[in-house]
């Protein structure tokens, strides 16, 4: 751009000096010469002016070629980068297994993605909006661009090997339709769906959702608790967002676990690992909150623990040795 301004300015000044033309005539002659429109000379030129015109054409053509080459290179490099980026993403998608699929990258979906990123769990986002896709690129998240309700898009996101589908689409009807589609494709898939109102919860459950979350109800409960039980809210925030390394985690006891058949008090989890069992879910039963010390642990039990992240991870490693 600067080069074009310089050469137009130089041509205009040159014609004004050599031919004693007005600014408008000199500018006009410069433009038609550089653009090669073939209008001819507006007035007969002297020999010096013709030599100047030849030089102006040569420099103009060279500048035009340089600009065209630079623009072409930018286009080609942009397309190449896009192609390479897409190939890398497709390769990462093919490697996904036992992952989470987040349908929608609005306010709720983005928060889910941030939490998954923090927990370092594998996930892929499905989004069709161009602006949201731009945010996904900037955030560096793995994604598939398309309509999450379409089977081909779900297959591209790896629904056949996914662990859970989280439907956070902004329209409740779309969440119902996505749940129906996903349940038809995978009868054993864990599906968590967002509902806008209480009535939508029943529809989503009937459509095949395992769990339904209504964000405004959760937000209202949280605000009421913050007003009446602020210390409880502080505790939930500390454990839910891992403040000071404290977390609530769930672990499943493997079939050959050394804890199989031991009671809570005999397990030694508190003394050895510094973690506390706050819930046990036995196979086929509901969650038991705050189990007693005599409660027997069995293989397949899901333990809900509270403790330091490092201690919980150490216990998890030891259970799988």
Please provide a written account of the structure:
There is one protein chain. The protein has 13 helices and 10 strands. It has 321 residues and is α/β, with parallel strands linked by helices. It folds into 3 domains: 2-86, Helix Hairpins; 97-219, Rossmann fold (3-Layer(aba) Sandwich); 245-319, Alpha-Beta Plaits (2-Layer Sandwich). The strands form 2 sheets. Strands 3-2-1-4-5-6 form a 6-stranded parallel beta sheet, with helices on both faces. Strands 7-10-8-9 form a 4-stranded antiparallel beta sheet. The mean pLDDT is 83.
Topology:
Blueprint: H1 2-19, H2 23-35, H3 47-95, E1 100-103, H4 107-119, E2 123-127, H5 130-139, E3 143-145, H6 151-156, E4 164-167, H7 172-185, E5 190-194, H8 198-207, E6 211-213, H9 215-228, H10 230-240, E7 246-252, H11 264-267, H12 269-273, E8 276-281, E9 287-289, E10 302-308, H13 309-319
Parallel strand pairs: 1-2, 1-4, 2-3, 4-5, 5-6
Antiparallel strand pairs: 7-10, 8-9, 8-10
Briefly summarize what is shown.
This protein has helices at 2-19, 23-35, 47-95, 107-119, 130-139, 151-156, 172-185, 198-207, 215-228, 230-240, 264-267, 269-273, 309-319, and strands at 100-103, 123-127, 143-145, 164-167, 190-194, 211-213, 246-252, 276-281, 287-289, 302-308. With 321 residues, the chain is of the alpha/beta class. The protein has 3 domains: 2-86, Orthogonal Bundle (Helix Hairpins), CATH 1.10.287; 97-219, Rossmann fold (3-Layer(aba) Sandwich); 245-319, Regulator of K+ conductance, C-terminal domain (Alpha-Beta Plaits, 2-Layer Sandwich), CATH 3.30.70.1450.
């Amino acid at each position: 751009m600067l080069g074009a301004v310089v050469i137009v300015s130089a041509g205009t000044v040159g014609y004004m000096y050599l031919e004693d033309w007005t600014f408008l005539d000199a500018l006009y002659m410069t433009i038609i010469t550089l653009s090669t429109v073939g209008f001819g000379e507006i007035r007969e030129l002297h020999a010096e002016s013709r030599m100047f015109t030849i030089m102006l054409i040569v420099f103009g053509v060279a500048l035009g070629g340089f600009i065209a080459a630079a623009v072409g290179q930018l286009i080609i490099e942009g397309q190449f980068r896009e192609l390479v980026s897409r190939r890398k993403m497709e390769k990462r998608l093919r490697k996904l297994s036992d992952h989470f699929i987040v349908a929608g990258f609005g306010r709720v979906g983005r928060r889910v993605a941030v939490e998954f990123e923090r927990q370092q769990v594998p996930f892929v986002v499905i989004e069709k909006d161009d602006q949201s896709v731009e945010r996904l690129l900037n955030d560096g998240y793995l994604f598939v661009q398309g309509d999450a309700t379409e089977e081909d898009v779900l297959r591209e996101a790896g629904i056949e090997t996914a662990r859970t589908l989280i439907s956070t689409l902004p329209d409740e009807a779309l969440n119902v339709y996505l749940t129906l589609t996903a349940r038809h494709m995978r009868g054993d898939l864990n599906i968590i769906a967002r509902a806008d109102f209480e009535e939508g919860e029943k529809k989503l459950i009937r459509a095949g959702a395992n769990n339904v979350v209504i964000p405004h109800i959760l937000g209202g409960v949280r605000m009421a608790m913050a007003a009446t039980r602020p210390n409880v809210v502080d505790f939930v925030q500390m454990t839910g967002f891992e403040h000071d390394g404290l977390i609530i985690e769930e672990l499943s006891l493997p079939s050959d676990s050394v804890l199989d058949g031991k009671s809570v008090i005999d397990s030694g989890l508190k003394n050895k690992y510094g973690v506390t069992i706050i819930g046990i879910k036995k196979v086929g039963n509901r969650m038991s909150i705050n189990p007693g010390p005599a409660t027997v642990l069995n293989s397949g039990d899901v333990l809900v623990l509270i403790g330091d992240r490092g201690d919980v991870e150490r216990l998890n490693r030891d259970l799988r040795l």
